[in-house]
Structures
1.
Amino acid sequence: MNIENELFKLQDKKYREMQVGIIPNVDPETIIGIRTPELRKLGKKLYKEGIYKEFINDLPHKYFDENQLHAFIISEIKDYDECLNEFNKFLPYIDNWATCDQPSPKAFIKNPDKLINEIKKWIKSKETYTIRFGVGMLMRVYLDDNFKPEYLELVSKIRSNEYYVNMMIAWFFATALAKQYDSTIFYIENNKLDTWTHNKTIQKAIESYRVTDEHKNILRSLKR
């Protein structure tokens, strides 16, 4: 199978125009324009048929959509160690928020005790999207049954000048305010985040339907 040809068969030019507008740091010439359900479907097909290894070993890819497909393919890997190995090989090539935020591998979700050690490594990286991926996985996997207050502390200590890192930190804390308010409000009341991230966290929490009106009023009073 020629994967590049298969991708162009799925091209949606109107969708491409929208993507070009919302992913400004990606070269528009590299965006084919394929809707996420189509990419996910193709990724599942390639994985199921076992015809993906040459593709995922051919890095860096030329097209943004190839990176998206790559993320969906390796998210299908059921063995935790294999999935982790492939993500660690792929993370240095992620260069935008969309590719960073799409994957949510079941192998990771099912192994929180192992994954947390990798997250601690990722968030100490110097690479923008490796940090963002780590915080994103912490948000997805560890704010419900797997929650520990120490995870809030891990994220609060991250300091970056990168917009896409700080936006993910704000998203993490806004979600934590919705799910673990009593533990999280301490970080807002005591100004544990930089000013921009602090205020963006409050903004996102106030916009969330999962945060109560009572808590929103408290958060409004804590803007800096």
Note: Residues 1-110 form one domain.
2.
Amino acid sequence: MKRVIKMSDPSPLYTQIEKDIRKKIEDGTLKPGDQIGSYNELSKRYAVSLITVKRAVSNLINQGIIFSRVGKGLYVAEPVKEKLDLSKHKSIGLVLQDLNHPYFSMVVHGIEERAYELGYNVLISNSSNKIEKEESQIDHFRNLGVDGLVIASLSLEYKATEYLRKLHEEGFPYVMVSYIHDPEYWYVGSNQELGGYLAAQHLIKLGYRSIGYLHAGKGNILSEIRKNGYYRALTEYDVPYDAKFIFYLDEEHPNSVADRFKLGYDFGKKWKSIEHKPSALFVYTDLVALGLEKALLEEGVSIPDDVGIVGFDDITMAAYANIPLTTVHQPAQKIGRMSVDVIQKRIDGTDVGNRTMLNPALVIRESCGASKRASTAGSAAHEEVIP
């Protein structure tokens, strides 16, 4: 099995491995009954840790695509032909917009961990960035008899669709793990406004006085909420707000990992031509920030000497960028775990609040210039987390 890990791919390593194994099974390279190898063998083959390998194959095992024989390794399973009857099993359906999205892949890991602790099977579907497919998958899971649904919607209006309203009115146990602005719907996520505040506050405390914001687009409510936090920090610390420092990206295809990276990259290629430039940028998401970094370095722009950068999400690849990215950490795995707890309580009829909000934390790395700007840097740690 050829090693397929690509450090340039922003998706988590375990997702890349899972995708490679799944592809080999689908195209017939690996056939039912074939031995894939042991965990240790796969760890060496892909040059990753055992934990990464176990995360990579967990979905495949749970879906019955591969199975494990104690002391012998992992094998490709025979295709299941009979119809699945979920009425005899506790189960949760998970509807995702993109299985390759690095943030939601971390949420999924938390969902799976907590679900299995509570005795639930997890069925995962990928809506491939199509709203009609998302709705049909919800219907499919309900027809199968799942007890509840965890939904990461691809709707960028961040408001309840007619379909979600219907689900809510029927009282079916569900919870959103993608941001939804309507307060009456069931949601587990992080405090987005606070995250924007932490990012801007950090840059201010480092001494930056001209701080810009790389915004997803004027119609993007989530990006606007993060901007509100940024603006609040500037106001509280008497740092001038300049509308020229708010840069709106053209999000024609914002759901794709590659597209978001390219948005940042294309903006970075234009950076030198911008006449009115800030000395630091808060970027609304890590994928855009990583694309921005790549373009700026190609253009000979020094990070953080010429411009300091802070992202948002703390995806896995943020720590491994050429200039490790300072970012706002969203507790993705905890969000996943708590979403299952909310589903469990709703199934049991326990009254719980509609919105569960977790606080983000700042992860300080090299892109913001903290070690260079701190007056007593000394032997400062490479990475620091500030709640």
Note: Residues 371 and 378 are 8 Å apart (CA to CA).
3.
Amino acid sequence: MKTDNLTIESIEKALVETGYIPDDTIATTLFLSFKLKKPLLVEGPPGTGKTDLSKAVSRACKRDFFRVQCYEGITFEQIVGEWNYQKQLLHLEMSRIKDLNKDVFGEEFFIKRPLLSAFINQNPSVLLIDEIDKADEEVESFLLQALGEKEITVNDLGTFDLQNDLLVIMTSNSQRMLLDETKDRCLFLYINYPTFEREVEIVRSQVPEASPQIVEAVVRMIQDMRELNLLKKPSIRAAVDWVKTMLAFGREEIDDETLKETMGVILKSEEDKIKVQNRFFK
């Protein structure tokens, strides 16, 4: 998919060809993100395909893919890069022995992490900043500044300008409120659990060998389970895995025995299993 003559329809078609089934809102927001050259902030419940969207865009556009996985306590060094102190010390020692004046603050002594690598990459790229809500506000502010100014400064090394057409996609599970400045600079997309029809289409694209009857039965029950007050609602991936499990067992319908045997595929806590048993077991 070339981005020069993009249309909403071409984005939708290209994503479907990669195995990602978008809805109209997803395709439209992506189109605007490309055209306006603005980062995309994607929120929604876990397991709805937020991370997969960025990977699918990378494949569809044939762009290089970089990922910053945020977590509590993540630092500048883990996002941008850090000095290779062992290599620096080794070269300093060699310089002392050979009486050389070796500069150990060059690029060869710097270990580049995903953000800097994405910036200086020569090919059009997609940068996923995953679960940005897990990082603290200081890290969020730094990312905002780097993306806004399109440059990254590393002490003792210099300033790196953005070298390519970079599409930035940030995801959030809403564990904390993001800065207003972040929201203002991004297009916003909320991805909820899919409709029955869309989830059936997604699962069938991932497990084409499964019969329509078993796919529809699995998706219907998965969607019923999401209505319960579960600690972790079943993801789209869980629906795909459950259909694959049914095929492995040679089952064509979900009875009590099958549900008991396979609950561990879709439910991740004993408390959730008990709630499902109380709701669905006859």
Note: The beta strands are 40-43, 64-69, 81-83, 110-112, 125-130, 151-154, 158-161, 166-172, 187-190.
